Here is the input.
Amino acid sequence: MMPDGYPEQYLEGLRLFNAEDFFESHEVLEELWSETQDSRKKFYQGLIQAAVALLHFGNGNLGGAKKVYLSSRKYLESYGPEYEGLDLSRFLGEMQFCFQELIDNQEPCPTGIALRDERVPKIAIPAAQ
Here is the structure.
């Protein structure tokens, strides 16, 4: 734990997410997730899946991206509009905007959809408490 009340890996995971280094973000957050035994565990899992969904989307694995995105959403929605210093309602809205074309596509294996960089969400990193 850092003195400002947020785990170091949490802040680092968010920083890497914003740098669009989704693989490393997921690695750092997964470390934190594996050490967490309280109500934050599923929240971290949702963030990990958000990073993995964007990683898949960027790599063209559209079926995987859609599946992991929907799972991530399910985890995060239960935490309310704000959690752990994060504006979750805004983040979920931006993720939905990013994935909308993929969500609307009803094909079992969507094709021809690319991750649009200007739609990739950024997370406002929580300030010290």
